[in-house]
Write the structure tokens for this entry.
Amino acid sequence: MECLVHIKPNFPCVLAYLSTQKNLNKNKIYTFILKDRTTLSFYPNDDNTTNALPFSCEIDPLSEGLLKTGRNNLTVTNFPNNNFLLEVNPFIFSSNSAMLGLKTKTVRTQNITHTITYFSNNNLNFRIENNNSFLDFSNNCKVTELNLKAKNEDIFLYFGTKNNKHFTCHICYKNNKYFLQDTNEVDLLEEQNDTIITYKNLHDFASHGEITTYSFANEFSKKTELAYNNSTPYKTKVKEFVPFAFFEALKVNNFKLARYYLTPKLSSKLSNNHLKKFFGNFEKAHQTLSPIYNPEEIALIYYGKQNKYAKIYSIQFNEENKISNIEEA
């Protein structure tokens, strides 16, 4: 069986496979036909990609999910018609504790002492543990200091980062086990007594921001609301941009903005619930993998049990570049 492999690295690198060597640019897609099991090797070629090491993986068109080598820095998305998008992150080498400070903090809640161990001034690697269980977590952001708050079964960690942002981590401890609830890298973090407020720029077309309020007063609670980085959302009438702007607004439940991109006739037929149910809980909108760009097609990426997968949608426009119909291709 043949398939098309589309490689999209988020760092400049050299790809080597069989007798081929290819310079790959950041976020640019390189495509080739895969017929047999093949080893891919990636070599970082950017001095700004610090602590990145060369690495290899094995892919196989007959393997469910394509990858034969499990790696945390590789993500596969299944597209229709035997197309696979392989997104590649650098393989980061983490220095040992002799080179960088190994630090610990403790917090006591529900009569249990929890110990958090992490490396400062390095990529995030931490462990939270007690006498009964532990949880390990890692992320490529470089952290400095750690602060934390706890309320009953909820433990909230917030790290400063080397790029002057913040990394937050919400952990729940139930039945002698740790459960990772969510993590986030945010632009701003403010602490006010029993409240922590964060702001994250979503970097989408409308310039949305996300404000999250964590309360530790009585019971732990979390509330998230949308904001704009500007006084009003940026809107577009450019045909090539409209599908991305529409789905980005739908992703964050900004139905008012999403309906701006629909014709009045289509908008009147669809309730907010219809819109969410029809497209489901997608991760993001993405270009299709067609070699010829078509602004009337777009892919939505979804999380699957093993790999991510894509659905392709065909879009019709009226003369004002408003969306008049959307169908799954």
Remarks:
- The chain has a mean pLDDT of 92.
- The first strand starts at residue 3 and ends at 9.
